[in-house]
């Protein structure tokens, strides 16, 4: 089987490389000639652990190709994935202009039966729109199928998530398209991966609903953490006691400065716009979006509790990406927190293992350190914003000697408060 993947952003590149790892012949298409040239030369535009090795392996094996020629890619393919960006607009709804252009280009290149598959996160109803739009723009009279196959990839663990997923969701109203998609995912049958077959509309909604639920879980434990701060108990104890209930589960019960990234903020807002379109209230999701924004603001008083007035203070920051194992700065809590400190007169010096090049586009006016210890040298406080593993094993005696004052705001709760205080640190966490 030959497939084409339109778009070599995060979703498209990971999906294309992993399908090639299944043994499928894959052509990834992008309009960016420089990106395509770099990919053909082994230069990966994103940081994702293990992706470079999979790309290199499958390019060498002749199963993975990169091109700007959408016509030839579509002509050769039985399945065409649309994986272009759908960034949020000011009102929270996704910008579908890239998707529309990709759909038009695909329609004009179709030369026989194809299954057109939405991989991007799109509004409910996009599948039916795609069928009508492509039908209007075909240059060759032919039948084609339409399916929705949402991705559930966690940045930093995307390869494992694709190769060993919890489930595969395929939405389509056409039996032939469903059979083609089942064949495409046949390698996962060997590990007994559940395949959820549903309607186009349900598949489109599943992605929004799943991300909104996870965002709600994060926001809930953040609010419980704030309550723990007021009461004087440890949120880790509360989360552990909650998570042992199988109906709740332990995952996503880790408090912090709020969720970020390319999915949760975008998809929660998009879900509310979808609901508005259908005249349905989403009070819980609306509250989640609002509470997440407040959570970032709530980190500043914690830091001020340690250092007092931030004006003229030097703050060392560890972690800039929205989560570990990625360089993604989109909607990262670090951006808002650092900007708030700078607005209050603080001088910030920051370090991140992989995200600093990207961070400079979001935070051009701060200093960047060469390593974690360089970031905190002479600082009035250390603020940990992203829980990279290497920050969990800092030489704390060295940290104390480098800081102008032994003060730590641990916004990810990676250290034990009692241990830190025993070592002589003034320490604040989230709900601890």
How is this structure best summarized?
This protein has 432 residues and is of the alpha/beta class. The chain has helices at residues 10-21, 33-40, 51-60, 70-76, 97-109, 126-137, 158-163, 175-184, 200-231, 235-243, 264-277, 283-307, 333-343, 356-362, 372-376, 396-402, 417-422, and strands spanning 2-6, 25-29, 64-67, 79-82, 115-118, 145-148, 168-171, 195-198, 314-318, 347-351, 367-368, 381-384, 407-410, 426-428. The chain has two domains: 2-198, 3-Layer(aba) Sandwich (Rossmann fold), CATH 3.40.50; 234-428, Rossmann fold (3-Layer(aba) Sandwich).
Verbal overview:
With 432 residues, the chain is α/β, with parallel strands linked by helices. The chain has 17 helices and 14 strands. The strands form 3 sheets. The chain has a 6-stranded parallel sheet with strand order 3-2-1-4-5-6, with helices on both faces. The protein has a 6-stranded parallel sheet with strand order 11-10-9-12-13-14. α5 (97-109) packs across α6 (126-137) and α9 (200-231) crosses α11 (264-277). The mean pLDDT is 96.
Layout of helices and strands, plus pairs?
Blueprint: E1 2-6, H1 10-21, E2 25-29, H2 33-40, H3 51-60, E3 64-67, H4 70-76, E4 79-82, H5 97-109, E5 115-118, H6 126-137, E6 145-148, H7 158-163, E7 168-171, H8 175-184, E8 195-198, H9 200-231, H10 235-243, H11 264-277, H12 283-307, E9 314-318, H13 333-343, E10 347-351, H14 356-362, E11 367-368, H15 372-376, E12 381-384, H16 396-402, E13 407-410, H17 417-422, E14 426-428
Parallel strand pairs: 1-2, 1-4, 2-3, 4-5, 5-6, 7-8, 9-10, 9-12, 10-11, 12-13, 13-14
Helix pairs in contact: 1-3, 4-5, 5-6, 9-11, 9-12, 11-12, 12-13
């Amino acid at each position: 089987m030959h497939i084409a993947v339109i778009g070599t952003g995060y979703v498209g590149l990971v999906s294309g490389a992993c399908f090639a790892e299944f043994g499928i012949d894959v052509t990834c298409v992008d309009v960016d000639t420089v990106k395509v040239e770099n990919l053909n030369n082994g230069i990966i535009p994103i940081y994702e652990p293990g992706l470079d090795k999979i790309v290199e392996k499958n390019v060498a094996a002749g199963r993975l190709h990169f091109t700007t020629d959408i016509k030839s890619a579509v002509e050769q393919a039985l399945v065409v994935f649309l994986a272009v960006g759908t960034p949020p607009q000011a009102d929270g709804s996704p910008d579908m202009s890239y998707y529309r252009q990709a759909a038009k280009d695909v329609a004009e290149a179709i030369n026989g039966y194809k299954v057109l598959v939405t991989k991007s996160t799109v509004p409910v109803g996009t599948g039916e729109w795609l069928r009508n739009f492509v039908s209007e723009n075909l240059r060759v009279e032919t039948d084609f199928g339409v399916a929705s196959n949402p991705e559930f990839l966690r940045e930093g663990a995307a390869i494992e998530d694709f190769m060993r997923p919890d489930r595969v969701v395929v939405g389509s109203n056409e039996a032939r398209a469903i059979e083609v998609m089942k064949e495409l995912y046949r390698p996962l049958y060997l590990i007994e991966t559940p395949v959820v077959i549903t309607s186009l509309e349900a598949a489109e909604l599943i992605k929004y609903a799943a991300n909104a639920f996870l965002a709600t879980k994060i926001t809930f434990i953040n609010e419980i953490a704030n309550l723990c701060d007021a009461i004087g108990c440890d949120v880790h104890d509360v989360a552990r006691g909650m998570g042992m209930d199988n109906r709740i589960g332990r995952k996503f019960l880790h408090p912090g400065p709020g969720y970020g990234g390319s999915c949760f903020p975008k998809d929660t807002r998009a879900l509310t716009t979808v609901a508005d379109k259908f005249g349905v209230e989403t009070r819980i999701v609306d509250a989640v979006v609002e509470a997440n924004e407040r959570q970032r603001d709530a980190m500043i008083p914690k830091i001020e509790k340690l250092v007092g007035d931030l004006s003229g203070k030097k703050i060392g920051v560890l972690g800039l990406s929205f989560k570990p194992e990625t360089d993604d700065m989109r909607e990262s809590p670090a951006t808002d927190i650092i900007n708030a400190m700078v607005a209050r007169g603080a001088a910030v010096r920051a370090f991140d293992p992989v995200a600093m090049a990207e961070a400079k586009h979001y935070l051009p006016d701060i200093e960047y350190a060469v390593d974690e210890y360089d970031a905190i040298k002479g600082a009035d406080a250390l603020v940990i914003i992203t829980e990279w593993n290497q920050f969990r094993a800092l030489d704390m005696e060295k940290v104390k000697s480098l800081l102008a004052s032994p003060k730590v705001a641990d916004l990810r709760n990676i250290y034990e408060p009692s241990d830190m205080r025993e070592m002589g640190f003034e320490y604040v966490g989230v709900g601890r």
